[in-house]
């Protein structure tokens, strides 16, 4: 399975009637008044053992999900709740029951271990949403120039397709009126996990030092979403070697050339081979 594609598997099986008003599932939500949510970052680690790799061959696989941390930051209207969710994925036996699956994936048998951080925010009034939609946030520019880049213009169709693939009905990716009048965004938002996939693909396909290296893989990536990215605006994804062998800085830029996503990735070889 290509790296990053695990994001389309094991979506929450929530009936439409139980979805929240913004189209999201209620599983990790702290409830009112924190009714707005965004993808705030996370990390992913892949097991380099070829025997543990997730393969698209009809084998049964499982996912164990749990909340590992909850942090409240800020005060008053600026108060936010950060929820960290861990997901452990891997192949499991056909006859395994839930307890067996949990035990198998709790250790080195897991093929992918992901942590995703979701931030929950207070509801905005119509006036607050309108004011926010007409403003731009703080711009923090990267201190270094990239050595490899790719620029794209995410379309509403692309966001719809990614929403469908990931079973994600969050209206911030689908409904422009909702974005502007309820959430306070000027257009549809690009998914946080889509940005993760783009960073991974940029590194694997575009990094000059990795071209022609057999069995290349990303061992781990850690990232933070710092500013929103919008449909129909230029999205520039960038990368550069970070110093230690196999370590790269990756980021995505807003049209104002500020950080939207900031990440660090470590590259290795399937099977633990050396010589990157």
- By secondary-structure content and strand pairing, the structural class works out as alpha+beta
Summed up, the helix count is 5
Share in β-strands: 25-35%
Shape: globular
Cα-to-Cα separation, first versus last residue = 21 Å
List how many beta strands DSSP finds. 9
Major sheet attributes: 9 strands, antiparallel
Keywords:
about 280 residues, single chain, about 30% strand, alpha+beta, 5 helices, globular, 9-stranded antiparallel sheet
What's the short story on this structure?
The protein is an alpha+beta fold and about 280 residues long. Helices cover about 20% and strands about 30% of the residues.
Describe this structure in words.
Strand 2 and strand 3 form a beta hairpin. With 276 residues, the chain is α+β, with helices and mostly antiparallel strands. It has five helices and nine strands. The relative contact order is 0.17. It has helices at 98-105, 126-133, 156-165, 176-183, 192-206; strands at residues 36-46, 61-73, 80-91, 112-121, 148-152, 216-225, 235-241, 247-253, 259-269. It starts with 35 loop residues before the first strand and ends in a 7-residue tail after the last strand. Strands 2-3-4-1-6-9-8-7-5 form a nine-stranded antiparallel β-sheet. The longest helix has 15 residues, at 192-206.
Q: Topology, please?
A:
Layout: E1 36-46, E2 61-73, E3 80-91, H1 98-105, E4 112-121, H2 126-133, E5 148-152, H3 156-165, H4 176-183, H5 192-206, E6 216-225, E7 235-241, E8 247-253, E9 259-269
Antiparallel strand pairs: 1-4, 1-6, 2-3, 3-4, 5-7, 6-9, 7-8, 8-9
């Amino acid at each position: 399975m290509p790296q990053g594609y695990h994001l389309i598997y094991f979506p929450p099986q929530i009936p439409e009637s139980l979805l929240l008003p913004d189209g999201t599932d209620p599983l990790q939500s702290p409830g009112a008044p924190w009714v707005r949510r965004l993808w705030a970052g996370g990390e992913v680690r892949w097991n380099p053992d070829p025997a543990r790799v997730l393969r698209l061959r009809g084998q049964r696989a499982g996912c164990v999900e749990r909340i590992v941390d909850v942090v409240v930051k800020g005060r008053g209207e600026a108060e936010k709740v950060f929820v960290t969710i861990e997901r452990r994925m891997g192949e499991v036996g056909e006859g395994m029951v839930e307890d067996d699956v949990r035990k198998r994936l709790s250790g080195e048998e897991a093929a992918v271990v992901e942590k995703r951080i979701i931030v929950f925010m207070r509801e905005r009034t119509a006036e607050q949403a309108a004011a926010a939609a007409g403003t731009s946030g703080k711009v923090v520019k990267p201190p270094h120039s990239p050595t490899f880049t790719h620029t794209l213009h995410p379309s509403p169709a692309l966001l719809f397709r990614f929403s469908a693939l990931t079973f994600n009905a969050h209206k911030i990716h689908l409904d422009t009126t909702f974005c502007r009048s309820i959430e306070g965004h000027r257009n549809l938002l690009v998914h946080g996990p889509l940005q993760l996939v783009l960073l991974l693909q940029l590194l694997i396909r575009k990094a000059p030092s990795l071209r022609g290296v057999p069995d290349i893989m990303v061992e781990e990536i850690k990232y933070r979403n710092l500013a929103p990215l919008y449909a129909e605006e230029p999205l520039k994804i960038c990368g550069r070697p970070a110093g230690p062998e196999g370590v790269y800085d990756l980021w995505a830029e807003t049209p104002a050339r500020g950080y939207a996503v900031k990440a660090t990735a470590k590259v290795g070889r399937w099977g633990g081979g050396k010589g990157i």
